[in-house]
Amino acid sequence: xxxxxxxxxxxxxxxxxxxxxxxxxxxxxxxxxxxxxxxxxxxxxxxxxxxxxxxxxxxxxxxxxxxxxxxxxxxxxxxxxx
Length: 82
Fold this sequence. Notes:
- With 82 residues, the protein is of the alpha+beta class.
- It has one domain.
- It is built from two helices and four strands, in the order ααββββ.
- Strands 1-2-3-4 form a four-stranded antiparallel β-sheet.
- A hairpin with a 2-residue loop joins strand 3 and strand 4.
- It starts with 9 loop residues before the first helix and ends with a strand.
- The relative contact order is 0.15.
């Protein structure tokens, strides 16, 4: 007997998992949890990589910047050179 469709395909499940993982990572900052920083990353659409306490982004003009978790908050920094 065929299983009923849940309405979500593999790609959709992957996107959902990524969104949950990046939000959990964002929530690592105490400032996010206590309301001093936005509950959602305002640059999440530009997010390209999450590694440890670093979030890497690519802006519309192609430049790369990072947010680093320092002293309980996300701070914008220039991207480190490769």
